[in-house]
Amino acid sequence: LDTWNTLKDFIINNDMSDSENYDYVKSVYNTGSLIDYFILNSYVVCMDWLNWNTGWWRGTHPNGDKKKWRYILWDMDATFGHYTNYTGIPDTSADADPCNPETLGDPGGQGHVPILNSLFENEEFTSDYINRYADLSNTIFSCDFMISHLDSLVSIITPEMPQQIQRWGGSYQEWEENVQILRDYILERCSDEFIEGMEECYDVEALDVTIIIEGGGEVEINSIDLDPNTSPWTGVYYSGLPISLSA
Question: Model confidence over 172-187: pLDDT tens digits?
Answer without folding.
Answer: 999 999 999 999 999 9
